[in-house]
Amino acid sequence: MARLFNAYIIVDWSAASKPNTGADSVWIGVLKRDVRFRLAFEAFNPATRHEAEAKLTAILEDLKKRNERALLGFDFPLGFPRGFAAALNLNGEHPWRSAWDQLDKMVKDKVDNTNNRFGVASEINRRMTGGPFPFWGCPPKDALTTLQPKRTREHGPADLPELRHAEVAAKGAASIWKLYYNGSVGGQAILGIPVVRRLKLARGDAMQVWPFETGFKPLTEADLAGVDVVAAEVYPSMMKAIPAHGEVKDLAQVRAAAEHFARLDEAGKLGALFGHSKTAPADLVLDVQNEEGWILGAEI
After folding, report:
1. 249 and 203: one domain?
2. Where are the alpha helices (DSSP H) in the chain?
3. What pLDDT, in 10s, does the model give residues 231-287?
4. Are residues 108 and 234 in the same domain?
5. Is there a single domain that holds both residue 146 and residue 104?
């Protein structure tokens, strides 16, 4: 069985407010064929998100010249919990895309990593609830009336869900509403989604965002005709990564994730991961395809 991809790119994102390398910074792991057609891994550790976007663009352009298709995995949610777009009164046929467009309008992320992620979350809270909910978590100096350092209350039946279906399935994945402290992905999503959006806009239909554009279904070679890149959400913590001597955990995780998906692809098993189980409820499937997204490899 033919492989779906020639290269596997895993991105460990960061919401840092200043240039940073090493642990807890941006890591890009690339597993691709060398001149002898053997899989070889290389990693990049750009100091800023601006540099990371430029590096990703260069990597994807190089693969395109070689007529090689890439799986591009990001370690943050590509969608918000169901009901997000409606709660913000966002127009558009596709809730996920409306949310992406709204974030792009709001986010300011400078070349030195200075960014307004707390301000964006605070404004979304103001529009949704008028208070410091559902986003929470920030340094005390960044606290605002509509954004507080600690969570102010639990989610109730009338609120947007705390977790997406995918986070429930993945067990241990953090809520997108958490912006700060260990394990927070909210800030990464706010600053990362506009980057994925720009990469997508630059490539049009040649880049497909799973599961929003591909559908929440198994993928085959025929499904990917004319497609250079499939972007997906990944959760590297699902794969056991053992750092080599002197290696930071982030680097080990992007390598382990890239190798994991490459092995599945080589065995003809990766395509099935893009689909859902036969027992998945129909409303869950619709939520995932239309707004929430899914974590590649998470089981319902």
Report:
1. yes
2. 49-65, 84-87, 95-106, 117-128, 165-170, 186-203, 249-266, 270-273, 282-287
3. 999 999 998 899 988 889 999 999 999 999 999 999 999 999 999 999 999 999 999
4. no
5. yes
